[in-house]
Amino acid sequence: MGYVQQEEWNTHYAQERRFRSLGDAERALLAEHAPAPGDGGRALEVGCGLGELALHLASTGYRVDAVDWADSALDHARATSPAGVRWLRLDVERDDLALLEENTYDLITLRLVYAFLGDRTRVMHDLGRRLRENGAIVVITPLAANTPSEKRDIALDEDEISLLSAGWEQAQRFDADGLAVVILRSPRLNQIAVAEKHKPAAHAVTGACAVVTDTNGRVLLGRSTSQMWELPGGRTEGAEPFEQTAVRELAEETGLVADPVDAHVLSLLWDDNHGISRLTAVVRVTAHSGTSTCREPDKFTRWEWHPLHTLAHLDHIFAPSAQALDAVWPGVLPGLPPARAYPHAIAHPRVDGEPAQAVRLRQDMTAKVFADGWAPSNQVRAALRAVPRHRFTPESPLTTAYDDDLAVITRRDDEGQATSSVSAAWLQADMIESLRLEPGMTVCEVGSGGYNAELLAHVVGPAGRVVSVDIDPYVIARTHRFTAEAGSGRVTALLGDGRLGAPDHVPGAGFDGCVITHNCWDIAPAWREQLAEGRYLVLPLEIHGYTRAITFQKHGDVLHARGFTFCGFVRDLGSASRTTPVADLRGGELQLRFEDGEPADVSGIEDALCGPRHELPTGVTVAPNESFETLQLYLATTLPGFCRLALDRARDTAVAAVPRGANAPTLLGDASLAYLTHVPVTDTATSEKGRAEFIAHAYGPDGARLAEQLAAAVRSWDRDARPHGYPELAVFPAGTANRDLPAGHALDKPHSRLVFTWHAETP
């Protein structure tokens, strides 16, 4: 009765054979604990068979999606289908679940189905993502205690029900005429706990664990009789090599067969357990054959394949297994205690494998980036389609990894601030396009992580090379591991201060391109010096606190801007990092930020803020979603005494119209200040719906003059600069004499002199 092949189920239903009919006790429990919402609600029945439960749910008011992998069952169900049921052929274990949208269902049922699932934990996680808030999954199953031994595989024992309930905040269990009815709500997130066993025997202190993935990139873990998840593995026997131990234990425990030549020692882990020193070799198995089975039931109750991003949701993982997983995919299990690891220098081949959903989402992401105009070249589009982005963010769900507009945070500091990320795909595409790369070129990337470097490697092709530098050992460890697992072999990851570039890896004529992937307050001389003549440097440059990804072309010692893109990146962590000077006002309620330069004299401004506010409309408006990003730079680079006024995110204030958490362009004067905001235009009959007008606000005795100066600059931008976009920008080395600079507004930084020439100023 424990069918495992699809054809067995097809034959069963083709003969119109049924299973246990839906009982009154089950109907009553569903009505009491999972009634249809007032708006009807949506329900999903997994493994619907001939459709009895689906039809019942439809009769109670649900709109039902009923899925099964047996065509004969669905054919029969459709023949008797009323309105309100959508019958879908779907294998919930193996197919892309795109038809089942996330956050969609109020109720998901698995009646007499759960025991037949192989990767139960993964399936329940995937189904949980499709629940609406307060939705429920209902599992109805026979119990092993009252099921004949020959039918054991259709029922659950108490340990299996306990594991089923472990991943949920709320779990209720009821009886329905001998069937267990388990109602689950609110999936638990990031509940990982590292677990230990009893004190190990002396002969068990040296061993190996096998890290194995399937064709979908999922890792194999076993549920042990100690109620925790473990990798395959065990102690060494005699002088047995670690590689041999790993493949032997893999076969003995799971039935999977691997050749020692496909087993690669990545790291040695040392720890202490109950006073016994333990040495564990992390062995990555890159190829195997067979089907996993439970070969040692006294040690393991089942084996399941787990997507990497779900590992942090498991309840307990054996400590050496958890550390081994982190050695292969750093960061996939957040919050692990530190371990002593000794990485093995020998690299291993690429390991392929990804689910169909990842392929589909990657194509969708690429199409969206292209449609928005960010990847016009065939080379960059091909790279976006080919490089598996999710394998460089293994801790993230696939939908997060392939969100074209989302930067995926991969590391935070102790205060929760992002220190490393995989940038939004559209921005990566734009910056790579700006490098104007050709096959065979060599590129330097400052700020690592792996994915962007692999996009670059795909664009420059087999004859090209990418050198990626980062100051954080953790980030470089991830880059090493992920480019080994899913990369081209053309990325060299280096630990070092990116301000120095990659001095030992510069080609004879210089790098053919250089891209910086963190916010830069200044331009390091090495980036220009190591760049080939006529080639391109792309970096997110902070100009009075406003960041733009700027493409520079090198001509001798001068960099000429060729393009600007509005963006934001994590801050520089290296020796060139800078803390912005600030002046607090009103006890920190307000803050003046001096992004370029030292703080000005703010004496008297506290008193000015207690006085009347002067307001001056500029007459300049913007439409909804209309960019005014050049206004920010225009004011910052043309007005003397420029700074920014910030409002504390956590407080209210009497100061007008400063958006919470935002920064307003500001001018300072003698015990006075003026700042700029924009407000909806609502007071005239001819006002275009949704437009906003820029308003200058001022305090202090010199406020009216400052407001007029600010308003005049806004009108000048609107009249002369706005139609033309960004200014001309040239960057000269620090120390360049004024006489050698072109006409324009100069901004001095420690290593460079930036000269902005707006179009209205061009002779």
Topology record:
Blueprint (H helix, E strand, L loop, with lengths): L5 H9 L9 H10 L8 E5 L5 H8 L3 E6 L2 H9 L5 E5 L15 E7 L8 H9 L2 E11 L16 H9 L1 E9 L2 E9 L6 E2 L10 E7 L6 E6 L4 E2 L2 E3 L6 H13 L8 E11 L2 E10 L14 E7 L10 E2 H10 L11 E4 L12 H16 L6 H9 L11 H4 L6 E5 L5 E5 L2 H11 L6 E5 L4 H10 L4 E6 L2 H14 L4 E5 L15 E6 L8 H5 L1 E13 L2 E10 L2 E9 L15 E4 L4 E4 L11 H5 L4 E9 L6 H10 L3 E6 L15 E7 L2 E9 L11 E8 L3 H19 L6 E6 L11 E4 L3 E6 L6
Parallel strand pairs: 1-2, 1-4, 2-3, 4-5, 8-16, 9-14, 20-21, 20-23, 21-22, 23-24
Antiparallel strand pairs: 5-7, 6-7, 9-12, 10-11, 10-15, 13-14, 13-17, 18-19, 24-25, 25-26, 26-34, 27-28, 28-30, 29-33, 30-31, 31-32, 32-33, 34-36, 35-36
Biggest β-sheet description: 10 strands, mixed
Q: Would you tell me the overall average pLDDT?
A: 90
Assign a percent range to the helix content. Answer: 10-25%
Radius of gyration, taken over Cα atoms and rounded to an integer in Å: 31 Å
Distance between the termini: 87 Å
- Strand content range: 25-35%
Low-confidence stretches are none
Side-by-side strand order of the widest sheet: 22-21-20-23-24-25-26-34-36-35
Based on secondary structure, the structural category is alpha/beta
Query: Rough shape?
Result: globular
- How many strands? 36
| Tally of helical segments | 18
